[in-house]
Amino acid sequence: MSNDTDTDDAFPTEHDPDPDPGSNSEPGDDESIPLGEELGSDVEIEAEIDEDAEDGLLGGLTIESTADIEIPDRLVDQVIGQDHARDVVMKAAKQRRHVMMIGTPGTGKSMLAKAMSQLLPKEDLQDVLVYHNPDDGNEPKVRTVPGGKGQQIIEAHKEEAQKRNQMRQFLMWIIIAIVLGYSFLIAGQILLGGVLAVLIYLAFKYSSRSTDAMIPNLLIDSSDTQTAPFKDATGAHAGALLGDVRHDPFQSGGMETPSHDRVESGAIHEANKGVLFIDEINTLDIRSQQKLMTAIQEGEFSITGQSERSSGAMVQTEPVPTDFIMIAAGNLDAMENMHPALRNRVKGYGYEVYMDDTIEDDPEMRRKYARFVAQEVDKDGRLPHFTREALEEMILEARRRAGRKGHLTLEMRSLGGLVRVAGDIARAEDKEFTEREDVLQAKRRSRSIEQQLADNYIERRKDYELSVSQGDVVGRVNGLAVMGDDSGIVLPVMAEVTPSQGPGGVIATGKLQEIAEEAVQNVSAIIKKFSDENISEKDIHIQFVQTGQQGVDGDSASITVAAAVISALENAPVKQNVAMTGSLSVRGDVLPVGGVTHKIEAAAKTGYDKVIIPKANEQDVMIEDEYEDMIEIVPVSHISEVLEVALAGEGEADGLVDRLKSITGQALERQVGQGTGSPSPQ
Ligand SMILES: Nc1ncnc2c1ncn2[C@@H]1O[C@H](COP(=O)(O)OP(=O)(O)OP(=O)(O)O)[C@@H](O)[C@H]1O
C-alpha cells in the first residue's frame, strides 16, 4: 500500500500532461486545489489504539461501538483502499484530466467520481442563460456568467418586465377609460364601447406576453451548489445526456412558447466545471458517444431537439459550455466496446486505472474497515451502531469474501448491503446496538440470487440423485464450478472413449462443447503420454452432466476432464465421494483456480467426503465453521496425486498412479531443477 502519486499505468505523467487543443485545462489549473501529499494523505482512523492488540480483528481499536469512530468530512478520505485510483483521481482533478476506471462493480468508482467533484474549485462555477434571439427565433443566444449571477440577471429582467407591464397596464386603463367615456357619454354607444374596451384589454395582454418572453431562461443555476457539480449520466438517453428542446404544439399564432424557454440542459452541460460520471459507457449508443466526444473536444455543445419529428429539432442554440472532467467506468467489456475514438481521447489525454478487488489485511486496514461500517451506519441514518463483536464478524466476512489469504474484499457495496441488513434486523428488534448475531443472521438472509440458485441446484440434484456421492464409477468425476461471484455448484463430468470410425476427436454436445474441447486439448499431452492406445484413433465423448453454462470455465474443469478421460481410457473406477477443482498444465501440474472457498462449501453441502484443490489455493480457503467438519480438503500439486486420491480399487489404481508419475516425473524433475515458481490463478 503506498501513496506514491507516480503510477506506472496512469498516463500522461504529472510532468508531461500533453497539451490538448480541446482540453479543458488552463494554465494555473494546478494551483486550483491543494497539492499532492495533502490530497493523497491516507486519513488514519481517529480513535484510541491499543498497540498490543493490533493483531486483533479490530487492529487494536479500543472503541465500544461504531458510535466512537469519527468519520472524515471529505468523501475522498472515506474511500477504503483503492490508493492507486484515489491518487489518480486527485492528480486528474488537479490537472483537469479525464479518467477511465475499470473494475468490479461496487468497489467505489462512482464514490471516487463524486469525491473528485468535491475537490474541484467552486469558484470556477458558471451559470448559463439562454436568451431570445430577435434575428432568428430558432437560434437562441447563450450567455455564460459567474456562478450565482444568473439568478440576479433573471431577477433584474423580471423586475424590468414587471415595470414595463405596470406602465402598459396604466396606459391601457387610461385608454380604456377614454374609450368608454367617449362611447358612453358622447357617442351613446354603450355596446360598442364595451367591445372596444375588451379588444384593447386583449391587445395589451397579448403584447405583455412578448415582454415576459424576453426574460432569459436560466439553464444552469449554480447558486445553491456547495461543490462543483457531479452528474451521473449512466444509461442516459440522448436528451438527458446532450440536452433537448421541447416540442411546442402551438408553433405560431401568438400562443407559442418562445424557443429559448423550451431549451433543456443535458448532463454534459450540467456537469460544466465539474464531473460527468458514466458507468458502462459502452451502453451509450454510438451517436451519443460521438457527440460526447465532440463536447469533450470543443468544450461546448449546442442544444437541439433530439426528436426529429418534434418542433424542437428546428431549434439550435449557440454553443453551451461543457467543460467537464469525464470519469468513464465499467468492466473490461466496457473498455473494449467503447467507441474507439472516445477511448483514444481518454487514453491520450487522461488516465486509465484498474480498481483493486482486494487489499492486504493489516491492522491499519482493519481499523479502516471498522470505520467503513461506521460510515455506512451514518449514511443510512437509521441503523443502530455496531458493537465490537459485530464489527469483528464484519471484518471476518470481508476476509472471507476476498477469497485470498491475507486480504480483505474491496467489494464494499455488497459489504455495505450486509451492514444495512444486519442493522435492519437489529432495528426491527428495537435493539440499541447491532450485534454479532444480527450480522450472522444477515449473512444467512442476504444470499445473492446465484447463491439461492446454487443451493436450489444442489437440493434438486439430491432429489434426483444426480450428485452421486457414494460408490465408484468409471469415467465419472465430480467437478466443481462457481456461479456468479459467490456460489459454488457441483459439475459432474462424464467421459466415454470409443474407437473412432474416422479421425478421432472430442465429441461434446450443447453449449459446453467449446469448453470441453479446450479442456481436453489442455490435458491431451498428459493423456497421450499416459495411454498406450493411440487416442487420435478414438472418439472421446465428454458430457458436463445436467448443467447450464453458468460458472463453467474450461480451465478450472481441466483436472476433472483429465481424470474422467483417464478413468474411461483405463477403465479405472473413480470414487464418487470425492469432488475436485483445479487447472492442469500440459506437464501435469495442478494450477490454482478461483472461487475455491465457494466450491468447497458446495461440495460439503452436497455431501462429498473429500475435495481436491490445487495446493497453491490452500491459503485461499476460508470456509465457514459449519462446513469445516463436513469435508476433508486435499491440496494437490500434480495430476498423479489427483488420481491417487480419486481412483478406486487400490492395487490397479496404484499401478496407474505409478505409471503417471513415471511419465510426468521427468517433467517434474525438470521443473524442480529450474525452480519454477507457482503459477498465477486462472
Ligand atoms: N472503496 C470504498 N470505500 C468506501 N466505501 C465504498 C467503497 N466502494 C464502495 N463503497 C460503498 O459502496 C457504495 C457503492 O459504491 P460505488 O457506487 O462507488 O461503486 P461502483 O464501483 O461505482 O459500482 P458500479 O460500477 O456498480 O456503479 C458507495 O456509496 C459506498 O457506500
TrEMBL record:
<feature type="region of interest" description="Disordered">
    <location>
        <begin position="1"/>
        <end position="41"/>
    </location>
</feature>
<keyword id="KW-0547">Nucleotide-binding</keyword>
<keyword id="KW-1003">Cell membrane</keyword>
<keyword id="KW-0812">Transmembrane</keyword>
<dbReference type="Pfam" id="PF05362">
    <property type="entry name" value="Lon_C"/>
</dbReference>
<dbReference type="InterPro" id="IPR008268">
    <property type="entry name" value="Peptidase_S16_AS"/>
</dbReference>
<dbReference type="GO" id="GO:0006355">
    <property type="term" value="P:regulation of DNA-templated transcription"/>
</dbReference>
<feature type="active site">
    <location>
        <position position="556"/>
    </location>
</feature>
<dbReference type="InterPro" id="IPR027417">
    <property type="entry name" value="P-loop_NTPase"/>
</dbReference>
<dbReference type="GO" id="GO:0030163">
    <property type="term" value="P:protein catabolic process"/>
</dbReference>
<keyword id="KW-0378">Hydrolase</keyword>
<dbReference type="InterPro" id="IPR002078">
    <property type="entry name" value="Sigma_54_int"/>
</dbReference>
<dbReference type="InterPro" id="IPR014721">
    <property type="entry name" value="Ribsml_uS5_D2-typ_fold_subgr"/>
</dbReference>
<dbReference type="InterPro" id="IPR020568">
    <property type="entry name" value="Ribosomal_Su5_D2-typ_SF"/>
</dbReference>
<dbReference type="InterPro" id="IPR008269">
    <property type="entry name" value="Lon_proteolytic"/>
</dbReference>
<dbReference type="InterPro" id="IPR000523">
    <property type="entry name" value="Mg_chelatse_chII-like_cat_dom"/>
</dbReference>
<keyword id="KW-0472">Membrane</keyword>
<dbReference type="GO" id="GO:0005524">
    <property type="term" value="F:ATP binding"/>
</dbReference>
<comment type="similarity">
    <text>Belongs to the peptidase S16 family. Archaeal LonB subfamily.</text>
</comment>
<feature type="domain" description="Lon proteolytic">
    <location>
        <begin position="471"/>
        <end position="649"/>
    </location>
</feature>
<dbReference type="GO" id="GO:0005886">
    <property type="term" value="C:plasma membrane"/>
</dbReference>
<feature type="active site">
    <location>
        <position position="599"/>
    </location>
</feature>
<dbReference type="InterPro" id="IPR004663">
    <property type="entry name" value="Lon_arc"/>
</dbReference>
<feature type="transmembrane region" description="Helical">
    <location>
        <begin position="171"/>
        <end position="204"/>
    </location>
</feature>
<dbReference type="InterPro" id="IPR003593">
    <property type="entry name" value="AAA+_ATPase"/>
</dbReference>
<keyword id="KW-0720">Serine protease</keyword>
<feature type="compositionally biased region" description="Acidic residues">
    <location>
        <begin position="1"/>
        <end position="11"/>
    </location>
</feature>
<comment type="function">
    <text>ATP-dependent serine protease that mediates the selective degradation of mutant and abnormal proteins as well as certain short-lived regulatory proteins. Degrades polypeptides processively.</text>
</comment>
<dbReference type="InterPro" id="IPR046843">
    <property type="entry name" value="LonB_AAA-LID"/>
</dbReference>
<dbReference type="GO" id="GO:0006508">
    <property type="term" value="P:proteolysis"/>
</dbReference>
<dbReference type="GO" id="GO:0004252">
    <property type="term" value="F:serine-type endopeptidase activity"/>
</dbReference>
<dbReference type="Pfam" id="PF20436">
    <property type="entry name" value="LonB_AAA-LID"/>
</dbReference>
<dbReference type="InterPro" id="IPR027065">
    <property type="entry name" value="Lon_Prtase"/>
</dbReference>
<dbReference type="Pfam" id="PF00158">
    <property type="entry name" value="Sigma54_activat"/>
</dbReference>
<keyword id="KW-0645">Protease</keyword>
<keyword id="KW-1133">Transmembrane helix</keyword>
<comment type="subunit">
    <text>Homohexamer. Organized in a ring with a central cavity.</text>
</comment>
<dbReference type="Pfam" id="PF01078">
    <property type="entry name" value="Mg_chelatase"/>
</dbReference>
<dbReference type="GO" id="GO:0004176">
    <property type="term" value="F:ATP-dependent peptidase activity"/>
</dbReference>
<protein>
    <recommendedName>
        <fullName>Archaeal Lon protease</fullName>
        <ecNumber>3.4.21.-</ecNumber>
    </recommendedName>
</protein>
<keyword id="KW-0067">ATP-binding</keyword>
